[in-house]
Amino acid sequence: MRKKSESLKTDDASGRGSVEGYKVPFPGRMHGYTEEGIQAVLDVMRNSDGQTQGKYMRQFESDFKAYTGANHAFAMDNATNALRLAGVICGLKPGDEVIVPAYTFCATGIAFGQSGAKLVWADINPKTWVADPTDIERKITSRTKVLVVVHLLGMPVDMQAIMTIAKKYSLKVVEDCAQAPGASINGKKVGTFGNFGCFSWHGAKNMSTLGEGGMLTVKDDADASLVPGLRHNGVRGFEGERERYWVPAMSNVDIDIDGVWPNNFCIGEAQCALGSAELRSLDKINDTLIAQADKFKKGLSDVPEIEFAQIPAGYRHIFHQFVMHFNGSTCTARRNDLMDILVNKYKMRCIVQYYPLYRFPLFQKMGFGGHACPTLDAWWDDSFSFPWWCGMTDETITYMVESVKAAVKTLKRGK
User: Fold this and answer.
1) What whole-number distance in Å separates Cα of residue 117 and Cα of residue 120?
2) CB 315, CB 155: distance < 8 Å
3) Cβ pair 172, 163 in contact under 8 A
4) What is the DSSP letter of 46?
5) First and final C-alpha spacing in the chain
6) Run of H or E including 89
7) pLDDT of 320-368, one tens digit each?
8) Distance (Å, rounded) from C-alpha 240 to C-alpha 208?
9) What is the spatial distance between Cα 180 and Cα 277, in angstroms, rounded to a whole number?
10) Fold held by 281-413
11) Which CATH class is domain 35-278?
């Protein structure tokens, strides 16, 4: 019997973060901040009068629109609330159905589950490992109202197929781009195909605004007009000319959608200033991650047991994480056997991410344990993630490649 992985104390349940005893850790941050970004935050701290809803937010939104080509962009406190707000504007209510990929971070399902609509789990494409449009169409019913697609790990979903399906059935499309800022299909950025795009600036992402933050892109003008009030407690100016600017009060509070309470999903000015600076580095960061992935794939090209997602022509996959699949049929081994060696012998902090959502107690207890995702079920239990960050040295990459090769050879020898 193989030795079980040692139990290590960490406050980070994701497996990221500094943990002693590993030659290759799994950092909690994708990359460090530039001096430009640090200075931008300091400038706001020293000079900005207001700390939210100001010129830095407007600049960040303008910069992001220019970068993505989106019709509208609204800075948010995080991607989960961007998803929630998209669901609100889509008008989701109990009795509706929303199709959500089963293979994604839990926030995608939680955001739409909170609407009261029924979650219907979509399977993955066996080649790209993201949502399968064919399976999505198969699961559409007369109650389906929204299709949610996730550009997971930085891999774009086939948006041409998705938008064709959405048009055929008159459905709204929400793109979860939390892990894919800068990803594109034939030059068109993700987050600009569907009705809404939701981005994350969490610390582990390819760009970050001090640990949390997000962006909501909106295609339609009418939908976009609803966002400012829903994002900021229904606050707005009073209509018409006022003889005294303080009468009846400084600002009004009103409703944007009948029966829907607004919320506070605002982001701070310092985060927005940093976001604009981070955005100027995003393509360089993504290029670095793509180059790293290419080195790993080349180094492991003679190890058929390690399988990678296939990237369609014209797709820019920006590798938020580096996930692979272990096919141990040549040595009657499984993913956990391989990870035992990589973790315990070679001290690589490999992790397993994105448990199929229908397997989590949360979704089971909320009534969403049912599923029909045979491809995901057959694939997931042998998938895992390498330690991953922007700027890995060639020495580290070589060590990891050689460790994997040695571990596979050990399994083939049956030792």
Assistant:
1) 9
2) yes
3) no
4) H
5) 10
6) helix 79-89
7) 999 999 999 988 999 999 999 999 999 999 999 899 999 999 999 999 9
8) 40
9) 18
10) Aspartate Aminotransferase, domain 1 (3.90.1150)
11) alpha beta
